[in-house]
């Protein structure tokens, strides 16, 4: 008897789903969304081509209409996700998308959407994932983005966005992943959301110092990618002591100094650091050797001097080391050239003596004596 009742309830549930009607405001928003896209950019086999409004978008089962691109709530009355196939749809994002008030995911990545991101989109308070990467959106990022309190992933990378970052970015308290790389953003880094796990702002025109107040309270931050910007000044010792930090890429900026302290209790998850192509002066930071899991380190093409710390060669976790393009002197540690060494990279284009010519680590060849002499205002010391 129980199984029969259970079966009848199951059938009734699916019959109700089949008869359920999507809320009219959601249907009108979907119609506006599709009509804003150039018909010539909608292939006959695409998700959008299957959006035929002679059927209800949330009707179950789906056979030939609305076969992909949209997802609905369990009661089949509301649109909860729009995830388009990346085939080159072209058009502008309609402001009427704000009618989809139960939308949790909007993913339009790898298409040809253009124009400004409508500010009305930031009224979607249930939005958790906003992915507009690899399109042609322009204009600034509206301050109203900070109203999305449920947002966990924001990816606007590979567009043509300009202007400054929203000042109250830290009010996105649920945000875990932020990627605004490959745009035209300017200005300073504002205070960041404290739940952030991954930060990517590569290839913009951001400038100023990387300050402790910006990263204050970010105890979960694992990945920081700020390469190809114009950040300058000193990178303080506090940065590499962020408790969950694993990967750092700050290459191609204008940092002049870096301070490295030993991790507390020799505990750190730091695995990879790229500080190449900056203007960093002084000696190689000895304390990098005290980060127990560090396997990749690049300080290439800076203005570093002095000898290579012996600790670098004794570090068993280190697999990739790029120190080329500096003014390092002395003889590199013999451990780098032992038969069982697993270190790859480059010590070339320095002022080193006795770097074995048959070792790949010593390529390219060292700077001329004349260049090294000028760099040290006289004879380079060992």
Automatic annotation (TrEMBL):
<dbReference type="InterPro" id="IPR032675">
    <property type="entry name" value="LRR_dom_sf"/>
</dbReference>
<dbReference type="GO" id="GO:0016020">
    <property type="term" value="C:membrane"/>
</dbReference>
<keyword id="KW-0472">Membrane</keyword>
<feature type="signal peptide">
    <location>
        <begin position="1"/>
        <end position="20"/>
    </location>
</feature>
<dbReference type="InterPro" id="IPR003591">
    <property type="entry name" value="Leu-rich_rpt_typical-subtyp"/>
</dbReference>
<dbReference type="InterPro" id="IPR055414">
    <property type="entry name" value="LRR_R13L4/SHOC2-like"/>
</dbReference>
<keyword id="KW-0433">Leucine-rich repeat</keyword>
<dbReference type="Pfam" id="PF23598">
    <property type="entry name" value="LRR_14"/>
</dbReference>
<feature type="domain" description="Disease resistance R13L4/SHOC-2-like LRR">
    <location>
        <begin position="92"/>
        <end position="251"/>
    </location>
</feature>
<protein>
    <recommendedName>
        <fullName>Disease resistance R13L4/SHOC-2-like LRR domain-containing protein</fullName>
    </recommendedName>
</protein>
<keyword id="KW-0677">Repeat</keyword>
<dbReference type="InterPro" id="IPR053213">
    <property type="entry name" value="RLP29"/>
</dbReference>
<dbReference type="InterPro" id="IPR001611">
    <property type="entry name" value="Leu-rich_rpt"/>
</dbReference>
<keyword id="KW-0732">Signal</keyword>
């Amino acid at each position: 008897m129980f199984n029969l009742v259970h079966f009848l309830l199951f059938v009734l549930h699916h019959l109700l789903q089949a008869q359920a009607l999507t809320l009219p405001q959601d249907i009108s928003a979907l119609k506006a969304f599709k009509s804003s896209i150039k018909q010539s950019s909608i292939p006959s086999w695409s998700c959008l081509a299957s959006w035929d409004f002679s059927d209800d978008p949330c009707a179950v089962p789906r056979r030939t209409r609305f076969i992909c691109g949209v997802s609905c709530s369990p009661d089949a009355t509301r649109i909860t996700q729009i995830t388009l196939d990346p085939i080159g749809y072209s058009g502008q994002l309609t402001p009427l998308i704000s009618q989809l008030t139960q939308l949790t995911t909007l993913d339009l990545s790898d298409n040809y959407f253009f124009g400004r991101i409508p500010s009305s989109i930031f009224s979607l308070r249930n939005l958790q994932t906003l992915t507009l990467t690899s399109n042609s959106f322009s204009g600034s990022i509206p301050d109203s983005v900070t109203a999305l309190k449920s947002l966990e992933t924001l990816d606007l990378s590979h567009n043509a966005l300009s202007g400054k970052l929203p000042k109250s970015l830290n009010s996105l308290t649920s945000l875990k992943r932020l990627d605004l790389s490959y745009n035209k953003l300017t200005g300073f880094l504002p205070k960041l959301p404290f739940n952030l796990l991954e930060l990517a702002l590569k290839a913009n025109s951001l400038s100023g110092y990387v300050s402790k107040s910006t990263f204050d309270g970010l105890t979960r931050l694992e990945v920081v990618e700020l390469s190809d910007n114009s950040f300058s000044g000193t990178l303080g010792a506090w940065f590499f002591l962020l408790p969950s930090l694993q990967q750092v890429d700050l290459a191609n900026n204008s940092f002049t100094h870096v301070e490295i302290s030993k991790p507390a209790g020799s505990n750190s998850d730091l695995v990879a650091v790229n500080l190449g192509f900056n203007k960093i002066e002084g000696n190689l930071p000895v304390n990098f050797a005290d980060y127990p899991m560090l396997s990749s380190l690049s300080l290439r093409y800076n203005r570093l001097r002095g000898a290579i710390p012996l600790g670098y060669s004794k570090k068993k976790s280190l697999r990739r080391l790029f120190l080329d393009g500096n003014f390092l002197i002395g003889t590199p540690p013999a451990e780098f050239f032992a038969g069982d060494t697993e270190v790859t990279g480059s010590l070339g284009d320095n002022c080193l003596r006795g770097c074995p010519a048959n070792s790949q680590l010593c390529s390219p060849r060292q700077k001329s004596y004349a260049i090294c002499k000028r760099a040290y205002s006289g004879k380079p010391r060992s």
